[in-house]
Amino acid sequence: MIEELRSIASLAEEEIQSTETLNALTSVKAKYLGKKGLITERIRSLRSLPPEKRPEYGRLLNQIKNRIEELLKEREGYLKEADLDRRLKAESFDVTLPGFCIPFGHLHPATRMLNEIIDIFVSLGFSVMEGPEVELDYYNFEALNIPKDHPARDMQDTFYISDDVVLRTHTSPVQVRVMEKHTPPLSVVAPGKVYRCDADISHIPMFHQIEGFMVDEHITMGDLRGVLEVFAHEVFGPQTAIRFRPSYFPFTEPSAEVDISCVLCNGSGCRVCKNSGWVEVLGAGMINPRVFEMAGYEPGRYTGFAFGMGVERITMLKYGISDIRLFLENDKRFLEQF
Ligand code: DAH
Asked: Residue 152: its pLDDT value, please?
C-alpha cells in the first residue's frame, strides 16, 4: 500500500511537471485531488484501515497531498508567466516601422497657380479686389467700351441671365467697379471665375482670369512692361523673354498681345509654339480714356495700364498640359501630379 502511494506520488509529480497548459493542469489536479481523485479516495478510505496502520499511512497521505498541492501551485505560476510572455511576444510591435499614411488632399492646380500669381503681384505692391460673377451687362460690356454689336456679346459666347445681366465673360469689369469707388493711385489685381459658352480642347465654359491694372498721373507702357517682365520671370524662370504684339481691345488703347519665349524649346521652335519660338500669355494695353470717363474720372488727368490673363492657360504652359478640359474632369490621376 505504501509502495502504491509512493508510485502515485511520483506519477503525479511527473504529470504536473510535464503539463504545458493551465487547462491540462486543471485536469491533472482533478485526477489526484478532485472529488473522485486518487488521493481524495484514499483519504476517504483511511477509516476502513486497521487502527494501527492509520497513523503512518495517514501521515504519508497528507505529505503527498501537500506536496502535490505545492507542485500544482508552482506549475500554475510557471504556466501563467509563460502564457503572459507568449502573449506579450505575440502582441509586441516594432515602433520603428513607418506609420500608415493618411492620404492628404491638396489645392487644385488652377487654384495653386492663381495663388502663386496673386502673390507675385502682391509682392509688387498690388492690392487684391474682387467683383461679382453674375454681372450687369453694363460693367461687363458697356462701361468697357464694348459696343452692342461687338462679337464678344454674341449669344454663342455669353451666358445671358436676362437682357442686362450676364455671367461675366472676363474679369475686366472689376476695373470699372474699383475705379467708381477709388481714386488713383491704384494698383489692383482682380482674380476670379469667368464664364463663356464654349467647350473644346482649349476652351471650357468656366475658367479663371486675373485682371491687373495700375492708374496714376504718369503711368506708361514702360511700367506695364516692367511689371509683366517680373511676372514672367517669377512664373516661368529668369531666362524668359517677353514681347508685345499690336492688337485690339475696346477698353485699351494702344492694345497688345503679350508673348513669352516658348517655355518648352526656349525660343528655338517646337510643337507648343508652332515653331515660332513664342507663346501668347495675356492681353494688355493702356486703359482707354473712354473707360476713365465711364468710371467718372476727370478727363485727361490719369493714365494707366491693364492686363488680363487666363490662369488655366498659364498653368498649361508652365506644366505642359495639352487639354484644358482636364481642369474640370477631377481625374485624380491628373490632379495627383501637382
Ligand atoms: N478681358 C480680356 C479677355 O477676357 C483680356 C484683357 C485684354 C484684359 C486686355 C485686359 C486688357 O485688361 O488690357 O479676353
From this structure: 67
Residue with CA nearest ligand 1 atom 8: 308
Instruction: Please work out whether the CB of residue 196 comes within 6 Å of at least one atom of ligand 1.
Output: no
CB distance 173 to ligand 1 below 6 Å: no
Per-residue pLDDT of 243-253, as tens digits, reads 999 999 999 99
Q: What is the pTM of this model?
A: 0.73
Cα–ligand 1 centroid distance for 270 (angstroms): 27
Q: Whose CA is nearest to atom 3 of ligand 1?
A: 170
Cα–Cα distance for residue pair 226/221, rounded to 1 Å: 9
Q: How far is the CA of 152 from the centre of ligand 1 (A)?
A: 12
Give me the residue label for grid cell 470699372.
Answer: 176
308 touches ligand 1 (CB under 6 Å): yes
The grid coordinates listed for 110 are: 488652377
